[in-house]
Amino acid sequence: MNIPVDWTVAGPATIVLVGALVALMVDAFYSRRTWLGSGLPASIATVAATAELVRGDASAYPFAFSLVVLIGTLFVVVASNVMNFENAMPPGEYHFLLMSAAAGALLMVSARDLVTLVVALELLSLPSIALVGLRQGDQRAIRSAWTFFLASVVSTAVTLMGVSLLYGVTGTLRYDELADALTVPDVPRSVVSVAVVLTVVGLLFKLGAVPFHLWIPDAYEGGSVMVAGFLSAVSKAAALGALLVLLAVSLPAASDSWQPVVAVVAAVTMTIGNIGALRQDDAIGLLAWSSIAQAGFLLAPAVAVSGPFGLTPAVQYLAVYALANLVAFAALAVLLRLRGSTRLDDLRGLARTDPWMGVPLVFATLTLAGFPPAVIGLVTKYVVIRPVVEDGHVWLGVVMGVNVMLGLAYYLRMIVTLCGRQDGEPYVSPSPPISVRFAKSTVLIGTAALIAVSAWPDLLLSHLP
Amino acid sequence: MSLLYPLLLSSALFGIGLYGVLARRNAVLMLLGVELMLNAVNLNLVAFDAWFADALHTGQVLTLFTIALAASEIGLGLAIVLALFRAVRTVDVDEVGR
Amino acid sequence: DGAGRRRPGARRGGGDGPVIAAALVIPFVVGFGLIVGRRFIDGRRAAWLGAAAMTSSLTLYAVSWEGRGTVSGEIDVPWIESLGARLHLGVTAVSWPFALMTAFIAILCCLWLAVEGTSPALVGLVLVISASSLGVFSSLDALLLFVFFELALVPMWFVIAWWSDGPPDVARRAATRFLLFTVAGSALLLVGIVIAATRGGSLELITIRPDAVAIVLITLGFAVKTPVVPLHTWLPDAHSAAPTVGSVLLASVFLKLGTYGLLVFVGPSDRIGVVAPWLAVAGAAGIVWSALACYVQDDLKRLIAYSSIGHMGFVVLAISTRSDVGVAAAVFGSIAHGLVTGLLFFAAGSMKDRYGTSSMRAIGRGLYGRAPWLAVTFVLAAVASLGLPGLAGFWGEVLSLRAAYEVGEVLTRPVAWTGLGLALLGIALTTAYFVRAIRLVAQGEPVPHEGDRDLVRRELAVMGALVVAVVVLGLAPQLLLDLFEPMSWMAVAR
Amino acid sequence: MGEVVDVVLRCVVVLMAFLTLPLLVGQMEHKAMAHMQSRVGPMAAGGFHGWAQLVADGVKFVQKESITPVAADRRVFELAPAVALVPYLVAMLAVPLGPFFGQGVLIGQDLDVGLFFVLAAMSVGVLGTLMGGLGSGNKYSYIGGMRVAAQLMSYELPMVLAAASVAMLAGTLSLVGIADAFEPWWLLLQLPGLVVFFVAGLAELQRPPFDAPLADAELVMGPLTEYGGMRFAMFLLAEYAGIVVLAALTTVLFLGGWAGPWSDQLGWAWTLLKIVAVSFLVIWARVAYPRLREDQVNVLAWKVLVPLALAQLTLTTLVVVW
Amino acid sequence: MDAYLEQYAAVGAIVVAGVLLATAMLGVNRLMRPQVASRDKLTTYESGVDPVGQGWSQSTVRYYVYAFLYVIFAVDAVFLFPWALVLEQIGHAAAVEMGVFVGVLAVGLAYAWRKGVLSWT
C-alpha cells in the first residue's frame, strides 16, 4: 500500500513546523536567550516555506491565502524583535507557538477534507491562545487568554458537532465527495442546514464575526501587540480561506442554508465592529474593533462565492487588509516600546514629530478606511461590494456602504489625531535598542508596498487570482 | 441497533456540556463542559461510522483526532486556569473577570 | 468592452498630449511639496508659487478646449484592469466651465494668501483641494472621479480646523461634522457607483447606468455635498468656522462637486424619475428655508453660507427637470454662484480681517463712508447674489425658473410648479434679507471704528477679478450658454 | 442458550483464577520475603508452612468493623475498593493462558484489541487508589493520592509505548495474536521494552520500590490510611491481582506466553510458570530495593523510561520496516 | 457489527460478575461484622492527635506539571496503536510519518527537560 503525500500542500507547512521545532531547540540549547536566536530559524523557515510555495504548483486560491499567511508570519516574526529584552516574553516559546500557528493556518487554507480542517483549526487556535497568555505574570494577558480559550473551544466543539452531522448525512468528510453527496435529492435538508451552520460557526469564530467577536478586543489588548497583529492578519486569513474554500467547494449545494446566515452575520459584524470602534480611545482597541468590522467586509463577498468572481474579491481585500493591519500593529508595537502608550491622546501629532512612524500609521489607517490617497483600500472596498451587489444582495451592499462611512468616522479621527498638533512633549525612550529597527524596517517596507499598490493597483489585483 | 439512541444521547451530552460552559462560573467545571461537548461529538462520529460500516472508518479516524484535540485543549485550558489561579487565587470566573 | 465604452460619435481629442494630466499634476506636486517642505519657504513666496501653479493649470485647461461636441484633452489609459477602471480624463461642455472656475478661484485664493505670516502648508492644502476638485471635474471614469472626490476632504478638514480664525474647539467640531457628513454621503455614493457599474458593465461616466437603487444612493451622496435640504446642517458651521480661503473654496468649489455629480450621474440617467420629484421639492424648499434662516442671521459668513443653500436649491431644481434648459441653468447657476459667493466671502473676509468679527452689528453701519470700495464690492456681490439682472446671478435663477415652468421630461406639472412657486417666493425673501444686510452694513450713519481701512492692493486685485467676471458673465451669458445652445449636453451624451 | 452457558462458564473460570492466583502470589510473598530476610514467615495457619495464612487473614477481615470517617466523602470512600478491585478481574478476562491439551487457547475472551483492553482496565484500577486518597478527607491520604496520580501519569506513558512496540512487531493488538507471533530473538530485541514495561508496571501497582504513595514512614499508609476491615482487604486483593495481571501481561507480551516445549499440550502450564516467575521478580524487587523518593520516581519515568521506550519504538520500527 | 459486539458480551458479563463479587464481599462483611459505635472512631487519623483543619488542601504545582505532560503524551500515544497495526502494510512512509510524530514528541520532551520542567524543585 502506498499513500502519496501531496508535498505541494504539505511542503510549506512542514517547513514551517520544522522551523518551529528548530526555534524551540535553539532556544533550549543555545543558552544566550536572545530574541534573535530563535527568531532567526523562524524567519528562515518562513522564507523557505514561501519559496517552496512559490516553487510548487498549488492551486490559485490556496496559493494566495498561503502567501498571505506566510508573508504575514514573516512580518510578525521580524517585527516581534521589538520585544527583545522583554523578560516576561520567552522567545523560544513565542516563536515556536507563532510558527505552529502559522503551520496550522497553512494547513487550514489547503485542507481538502474536514478532518484536516478541524485539526488545522486547532493547530492554529491553541498556539494562538497560548501566545495571548504567554507574557508571564501579566494578569490581563492571562484573563484574555482564558476568554479566548473558552470561546475557542466552545466554537470548536460546535464545529465538530456540525462536522459529525455532515458525516452522518453524507458518510464522507472529503470536500469533493461532500459536494456530490449534498446534491442527492433525498438528503434531509433540515439536518444539512443545521450541520452546515454549526460547521461554519468555528470558522466564523476564528474570523471574529459577530456573535463570536467578544474575544477579539480582549485578546488584542491583553496579548502583546504583534500577537494581535498575527491574530488580525494571519489567523483571519486562514479562517477566511478555509471558510471560503469550504463554502465554494463542498457546500454550494447547501447554499440556501448558509447564504442568509453569512449575509446577516457579515452585516451585523461590520456594524457592531464599527460601533465598538467608535468608542475606543486606545489605538490598539480601535484597531481591534475595526478588525471585527473588517471581518464583516471579508465575509460579505462569501455570499457570492459561487458567482463569477469566486473567491477573488475576498482574497484581494484580505491581502490589502492584512498588510495594512500588520503595518499598523507593527508601528504601534514600536510606539508602545518607545513611548509606553498607544492611547490616541498620547500619539497626537505623531505624523509631525516622528514622520517615519507616523506617516506609515496614517497610510495604513487610510488603507483600512479605504480613503484616498490610499487608493488600494478604496479599490478593494469596491472589489468586495461588487460581487455582493451583482449577486443580488443590494441591501448588504448598502449596509457595507453605511459601514464604510462608519469606519471612516473613527479612522479619520485617528488620522486627524496623528496629524494633529501635539500638546506636550511625549515621553520617548531615550535610547531605542537596535532591535526596534527591525520592526521599523518592516513598517517601512510594508508601507512602501501599500503605496506601490495604491499607485498601481493592478500590481496587486491582477496577480492575485 | 437503531441510530436514534446514540444520537439522542449525544445531543443530550452536547446540550449539557454547552449549558455547563455557559452557565457555570467555575473554570474547572467549564472545562468539564467542554469535554462533554467533545465526547458527544465522538459518540456521534462513532455511531455514524458503525452505521455506515464505513470501510475507511472516517468517523473513527476523526474520533481519534478529536480525542487528541480534546486532550490538548484541556491541557492548555488547565495551564491557563493555573496561571489564572496563581495570579488571582481563584478559579471562579466571575471573580476573575473585570 | 472597448467599443461600448466609447461614446458614439465622439471624436478622439486632438493630439495635444496629456494637457489635462499636466494641469492636475502641477498643483498636486506643488501642493504636496509645500506641505512637506513647509519649513523651507516663507508664506508669501509659497502663495505666489501656488498662484503660478494654478495659473498654469488654468491656462492648460483653457487651451485644451476643442469644442463643445467632443471630449477635450482626452487621456484614456488602463488603470485597474481587473475592475475595468481607467485613467480617463477629459473635459466636456459641462465640466469645462467648472474646471475653469475652480482654477480661477484657486488662483485668487493663493493671491489672497500672499501676505506676511501665511503658512505654506495652508497654501499647499489649498492647492491639493483645488487640484482634487479639478480632478473630479476632469474624470471620465466613475471610480477615478470618486477617488478625487474623497481626496479633497481631509485637507479641507485641516483647513477648517487649524486655520480657523474662530475658537479652535468650535472649528474642530464644525470641521469634523463637515467631514462626517461628506464621507457619509460618499460612502453611499461608492455603493451607488458599484451598483451602477455592475449593472452597466462599465465605469465610464458616459455609459454608466444607475438603476433605481443606485440612483437613490448616488443622489443621496451628492445631495449631502451640494447640499440639499435637509442634509445641509454641516454647511453653516463649516463655512463660518473656516478661514476666508476655506469658506471660498467650500462655497465656490466644494458645493460644485455636488451639483456636478448630480449633473453627470443623475441628470442623464433614465431612472432620474425616481428621485426627481424629491430633488425638485427639496431644492425649492431649500430656497425658501434658507432665505428665512438668512433673515435672522447676524453673522455675515453664516448668512452667506445659508444663501448658498438657496442658490444650490435653484441648481437642484433645474437638474431635476432633466431638460436642456435645466442643464444650462444648472451649469450657469453653479458657475455664477461660485464667482458671486466667492466674492461675498472675500468681502466678508476683508471685514473680518479688519474688525475681527463677522457679526454685522459689530461691524457697524455706514461702511460706505468708512471703507467705500469694500462697501461697494460687498453690495455689488450681494445684489449679484440676489439675482439682479445684468449680473451673473440673474441668469442661473431665471433659467431655473424657466426649466421648472416648462416642467421638463420627468416631473409632473404639480410638482414642477410647486417648485416654481416656492422658488419665486424664495427670490422675494432673498431680496429681503440681502436688502436687510446691505442696510445693516453699508448704509446709515458711519460709526468710525479703529479697524476702518479701505481695500489694499491684494484685496482689490482679487475682488476686482471676481467683479469683472461677475459683470462679464452677467452681461454676456452667451459665453457660457453657447456651450449648450442649441445643442444641449443631454443630446450630446445620448 | 448454549452461548449464554458458554459465557457464564468462562466468567466463572476467570473468577476462580482471580480468587486463587493472587492468594498464591500473596503466600509466595510472605514466604519468599521471609526467607530472603532470614525469617521463616507464617508457619502456623493450616499446618504445613502456614499455607492457609491468607485464608485465615480473609476470615479475619470479614469479621472486622467497617468505619467511614466523618470527614470522608462517603460515597467515594466506600466505592473506592470496588473500583480498585473489579478492573483487574475484567483485565484477566482477556489474558490468554495458552493451549490446553490441544484444545485451543485457554482464555476468558479473545478480544481483537486485547492489549488495549487490558492496559485500559489496569489504568482504571489505579483510579480506585486515587479515589481512596482523595475521598478520605485525611491529609496523609490526600498527599498519597496526589502521589498516586503523579505516578500513574508518569508511568502510563512508557508502559503504553513499550506495549505499542510489541504490538507493532506482531502487527496485532490481540493478546493471543501477539503470543502466537512470538519469536525467540524478540527476547533480545525487546529487552529494553521488557524492562520499561516491567518497571512501569511495578510503579503503576505502587509496589516497592515505587511505593512512595504508601510510604509508611512518612504517610502512615498513604491513600489507605483510613481503610480497615473488608475494604482494606479488597485493596490488598487488588494489589495482588494487579501483580498477577502485570506478570501475565509481561509474559504474553515479552516472554512469548506459552512458547516452550510441547506448548500445544502444556502451553497453559508454561504461561503459568512464567507468570509465577515474573511475580517472584516483583516480590524480589520489593525486598532488594529501597523505596524511591517522590522526585526520583518521577524523574526515573520521564528521564529514563520514556526516552528508553521511544528508543525501543524506533528500533522496532526500523526492524519492522526493513 | 453484531459479531463484533458478541465479543464484548463476555466483557459485560465479567463486569457484572465483578460488581457482584464486590457486593458479595461487602455483604458478607456486613453480616458478620460487629457494630460498636464511637465518636472517636469516626475522626480522621492524624497520628493519634486531634485532627487539625481540613483534609483538603492545595497540592503543589509539581504534580500538575506531570499531569500536563501525561495528558499530552499519552493521548498522542493513542495514535501509536492503529499505526502499529498497519505499519507493515504501509511500510516506509508510515515509519517516516511516525518518526516525525515521535520526533516532535521527543523535541517537546527535550525542551521540557532542558527548561527544567522535569526537575523536582
Automatic annotation (TrEMBL), chain A:
Membrane topology: Multi-pass membrane protein
Catalytic activity: a quinone + NADH + 5 H(+)(in) = a quinol + NAD(+) + 4 H(+)(out)
GO molecular function: NADH dehydrogenase (quinone) (non-electrogenic) activity; NADH dehydrogenase (ubiquinone) activity; quinone binding
UniProt-listed Enzyme Commission number(s): 7.1.1.-
Keywords associated with the record: Cell membrane, Membrane, NAD, Quinone, Translocase, Transmembrane, Transmembrane helix, Transport
UniProt KW Cell membrane keyword: yes
The keyword Secreted belongs to this UniProt entry's keyword annotation: no
Location within or outside the cell: Cell membrane; Endomembrane system; Membrane
Main location, first listed in the record: membrane
NADH:quinone oxidoreductase/Mrp antiporter transmembrane domain: residues covered: 111-405
Transmembrane segments: 12-30, 60-82, 94-111, 117-134, 146-170, 190-215, 227-251, 257-277, 284-305, 317-338, 359-380, 392-412
Record Pfam families: Proton_antipo_M
InterPro entries: NADH-Q_OxRdtase_suN/2, ND/Mrp_TM
GO cellular component, one term: endomembrane system
Single GO BP term: ATP synthesis coupled electron transport
PANTHER family with a match to the protein in the record: NADH DEHYDROGENASE
Described purpose of this protein according to its UniProt entry: NDH-1 shuttles electrons from NADH, via FMN and iron-sulfur (Fe-S) centers, to quinones in the respiratory chain. The immediate electron acceptor for the enzyme in this species is believed to be a menaquinone. Couples the redox reaction to proton translocation (for every two electrons transferred, four hydrogen ions are translocated across the cytoplasmic membrane), and thus conserves the redox energy in a proton gradient.
Family: Belongs to the complex I subunit 2 family.
Quaternary structure and interacting proteins, as annotated: NDH-1 is composed of 14 different subunits. Subunits NuoA, H, J, K, L, M, N constitute the membrane sector of the complex.
Name by which UniProt lists this protein: NADH-quinone oxidoreductase subunit N
Species this chain originates from: Aeromicrobium fastidiosum
TrEMBL record, chain B:
Domain of life: Bacteria
Broadest EC class assigned to this enzyme: translocase
Membrane topology: Multi-pass membrane protein
GO MF term (any one): NADH dehydrogenase (quinone) (non-electrogenic) activity
GO biological process, one term: ATP synthesis coupled electron transport
Catalytic activity: a quinone + NADH + 5 H(+)(in) = a quinol + NAD(+) + 4 H(+)(out)
Gene3D superfamilies: 1.10.287.3510
One Pfam family here: Oxidored_q2
EC number from the UniProt entry: 7.1.1.-
Keywords of the record: Cell membrane, Membrane, NAD, Oxidoreductase, Quinone, Translocase, Transmembrane, Transmembrane helix, Transport
GO cellular component: NADH dehydrogenase complex; plasma membrane
Residues annotated as transmembrane: 61-85
Compartments reported by the entry: Cell membrane; Membrane
InterPro entries cross-referenced by the UniProt entry: NADH_UbQ_OxRdtase_chain4L/K, NUOK/Mnh_C1-like
PANTHER family cross-referenced by the UniProt entry: NADH-UBIQUINONE OXIDOREDUCTASE CHAIN 4L, NADH-UBIQUINONE OXIDOREDUCTASE SUBUNIT ND4L
Family: Belongs to the complex I subunit 4L family.
UniProt subunit comment: NDH-1 is composed of 14 different subunits. Subunits NuoA, H, J, K, L, M, N constitute the membrane sector of the complex.
Physiological role: NDH-1 shuttles electrons from NADH, via FMN and iron-sulfur (Fe-S) centers, to quinones in the respiratory chain. The immediate electron acceptor for the enzyme in this species is believed to be a menaquinone. Couples the redox reaction to proton translocation (for every two electrons transferred, four hydrogen ions are translocated across the cytoplasmic membrane), and thus conserves the redox energy in a proton gradient.
Protein name: NADH-quinone oxidoreductase subunit K
Organism: Aeromicrobium fastidiosum
Gene: nuoK
Automatic annotation (TrEMBL), chain D:
GO cellular component: a single term: plasma membrane
GO BP field: aerobic respiration
The reaction(s) this protein catalyses: a quinone + NADH + 5 H(+)(in) = a quinol + NAD(+) + 4 H(+)(out)
Main location: membrane
The entry's keywords: Cell membrane, Membrane, NAD, Quinone, Translocase, Transmembrane, Transmembrane helix, Ubiquinone
Transmembrane segments: 7-26, 79-101, 113-134, 155-179, 185-203, 232-255, 267-288, 300-321
Membrane topology (UniProt): Multi-pass membrane protein
Stored Pfam families: NADHdh
GO molecular function terms noted in the UniProt entry: NADH dehydrogenase activity; oxidoreductase activity, acting on NAD(P)H, quinone or similar compound as acceptor; quinone binding
Location of the protein in the cell: Cell membrane; Membrane
EC number: 7.1.1.-
Highest taxon of source: Bacteria
PANTHER family per the UniProt record, alphabetical: NADH DEHYDROGENASE SUBUNIT 1 (PTHR11432), NADH-UBIQUINONE OXIDOREDUCTASE CHAIN 1 (PTHR11432:SF3)
Record-linked HAMAP family: NDH1_NuoH
Subunit details: NDH-1 is composed of 14 different subunits. Subunits NuoA, H, J, K, L, M, N constitute the membrane sector of the complex.
Family: Belongs to the complex I subunit 1 family.
Name of this chain's protein: NADH-quinone oxidoreductase subunit H
From TrEMBL, chain E:
Keywords attached to this entry: Cell membrane, Membrane, NAD, Quinone, Translocase, Transmembrane, Transmembrane helix, Transport
Membrane topology: Multi-pass membrane protein
Reactions mediated catalytically: a quinone + NADH + 5 H(+)(in) = a quinol + NAD(+) + 4 H(+)(out)
Signal peptide limits: none
Membrane-spanning residues: 12-32, 63-84, 90-113
Function in brief: NDH-1 shuttles electrons from NADH, via FMN and iron-sulfur (Fe-S) centers, to quinones in the respiratory chain. The immediate electron acceptor for the enzyme in this species is believed to be a menaquinone. Couples the redox reaction to proton translocation (for every two electrons transferred, four hydrogen ions are translocated across the cytoplasmic membrane), and thus conserves the redox energy in a proton gradient.
Protein name: NADH-quinone oxidoreductase subunit A
Species this protein is from: Aeromicrobium fastidiosum
Encoding gene (name): nuoA
